[in-house]
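Sequence, please.
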């Protein structure tokens, strides 16, 4: 009778993903994952050809996690790009290490950036077309250049999210929504 494997691919991925959430992606090494999972490095390399494969799996899971986070984030804003901005800023505040991995250059693995990354636009747009939807809303609202407006809004939104990582952004959700709405009206000229 074959020995039952006690350490599964799912357990390894769960461990590496939780390590990324808590400690940052650079801390996901074979030895650290093995120690946290309570095994040797052998089970890791039995199911993953190398650490790059595990890092890719963690990145894909983080990407899916962000998509799920965004889809479940409450939609309270009435102005285009405000809900996208609120969710993105909240994600940076609540999931700083995953934000770093997905949206900042500092998210590389311990051996360098071996992860096959998506562009920021691909991550934001997702399978549901989140950005495309927001641009269409801006066009429906009368914006003559909604793509340009998105870029202006995005610079503000990304800057606010990055400021939250450094502790330099301490606005409440209400204040953030007001800023997003005011920025939209200023950039759109309405």
């Amino acid at each position: 009778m074959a020995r039952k494997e006690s350490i599964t691919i799912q357990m390894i991925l769960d461990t590496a993903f939780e390590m990324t959430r808590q400690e940052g992606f650079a801390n996901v090494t074979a030895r650290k994952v093995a120690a946290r999972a309570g095994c040797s490095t052998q089970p890791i390399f039995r199911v993953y050809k190398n650490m790059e494969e595990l890092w890719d799996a963690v990145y894909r899971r983080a990407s899916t996690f962000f998509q799920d986070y965004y889809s479940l984030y409450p939609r309270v804003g009435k102005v285009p790009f405000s809900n996208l901005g609120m969710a993105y800023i909240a994600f940076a505040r609540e999931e700083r290490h995953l934000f770093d991995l997905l949206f900042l250059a500092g998210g590389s693995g311990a051996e360098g950036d071996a992860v096959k990354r998506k562009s920021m636009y691909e991550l934001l747009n997702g399978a549901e077309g989140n950005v495309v939807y927001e641009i269409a809303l801006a066009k429906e609202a009368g914006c003559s250049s909604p793509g340009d407006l998105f870029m202006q809004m995005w610079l503000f939104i990304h800057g606010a999210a990055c400021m939250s990582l450094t502790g330099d952004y301490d606005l409440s959700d209400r204040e953030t929504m007001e800023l997003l709405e005011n920025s939209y009206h200023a950039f759109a000229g309405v």
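The domain at 9-188 is CATH 1.10.357.10 (Tetracycline Repressor; domain 2).
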